[in-house]
Amino acid sequence: MTQPGVRGRAERMRDTLRRLAHDVDVWVASAGPGGAPYLVPLSYLWTGTEVLLATSRGNPTGRNLRAAGRVRLALDGTRDVVLIDGTVTMVGLDAVPAELADEFAAHTGFEPRRLPTHAYFRVRPDTVQVWREVDEFADRYLMRAGRWLDT
Question: Domain 9-140 is in which class?
Answer without folding.
Answer: mainly beta
